[in-house]
Amino acid sequence: xxxxxxxxxxxxxxxxxxxxxxxxxxxxxxxxxxxxxxxxxxxxxxxxxxxxxxxxxxxxxxxxxxxxxxxxxxxxxxxxxxxxxxxxxxxxxxxxxxxxxxxxxxxxxxxxxxxxxxxxxxxxxxxxxxxxxxxxxxxxxxxxxxxxxxxxxxxxxxxxxxxxxxxxxxxxxxxxxxxxxxxxxxxxxxxxxxxxxxxxxxxxxxxxxxxxxxxxxxxxxxxxxxx
Length: 227
Ligand code: NI
Prior knowledge:
This protein is of the alpha+beta class. The chain contains 6 helices and 17 strands. It has 2 domains: 3-178, q2cbj1_9rhob like domain (Jelly Rolls), CATH 2.60.120.620; 183-224, DNA Excision Repair, Uvrb, Chain A (Irregular), CATH 4.10.860. Helix 1 runs antiparallel to helix 3 (51-65). The two termini are 21 Å apart. Nickel (II) ion binds at residues 96, 98, 159.
């Protein structure tokens, strides 16, 4: 499932984040790559573990926790500390897959990457190219969202970032381990969650049907989730 999360960051939060990033230390993006990715990747990345990186990552994590859409769709168990990259001057990231296991340097924190997320931080009119292209069985999905909006996509996919031929594309990206490992089960829970919200909205949250459907949701979650 690919899911856009519109306006994950509001304008004030985005401005605060951009100010932190402007003052940060940007290095060659291959600092975090595996051997195969290093061949395909040309960009710059905010140096990990620096005060700016920690502050910027905290801003994104905070916004994720406050997004009901993100939480319902991802059912996050562990989120890798958000990273930040910048593409300009023809930089791109060729077709690649994300590593199944992500370890944080200098700690024992590790996650299985079930979902990948990109948060677009630049106004799309300010740069050319830079689409995130995700290969799906039905074809390619090309994604270029407004500043502050995010896209969730399966970490199992082959994907790339098209060359940025004008301006600069700033983004945050990270991986997460979901409480529900399987994408099919996660999609069913997401659909059911939305239906429950709709029933509750139309009939009232205390309506017997809303209560029973909520019970079905939680019983499926109990069956499928690791927490
Ligand atoms: Ni990737």
